[in-house]
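Support reply, case 0932

Customer input (verbatim):
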Amino acid sequence: MKVLLTMVSMLALCLAAIAHADRAHHTVRLDWIDVDQGDASPALRAGHATDVHTEGDPKASIQYFFVNGARPHATYEVVYVVDGLAWVPDTICQGNLEFPVHFELYLETDRRGIGRARWQFTQAELEGSGVVETYFGLRFQLWDTETGTLAYDTPCFVAINDL
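Our regenerated output:
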């Protein structure tokens, strides 16, 4: 009985830690979708974009980008695509109100087509954006800088600048 109570107590502590972690980090992981461009963008073996929002002081928004199997020795520009805004009805992730945002962020691949990139918005940048507590559609794209073509895209998700 004592062992059972100890196990139940440990399980409760683990569940509390998981719940706290979920409150502290809101994470979305999106797989890359190959955009049909012929041989210019090979099918990936693996790849994703991860969007992490941290709570606490300071708050931040961090994005990680990863590809495995992209074109070797290539440079891709990471483009953020805002796909609809909360204050414009019927636009979030509908494809009828899209605009790209460029941050001079590039992902470079090695000889095997593996590449990584990271971007972070600080709390000050989030506060200065003017869209605090605003929902919007967001997706990420990888543009091949050599060919000028869209190589990979993610599905749209609902994001919030939740300071």
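We compared this against your earlier run and they match. Two observations from our side: The longest strand covers residues 98-109. Helices lie at 2-24, 123-128. Please reopen the case if you see a mismatch on your end.
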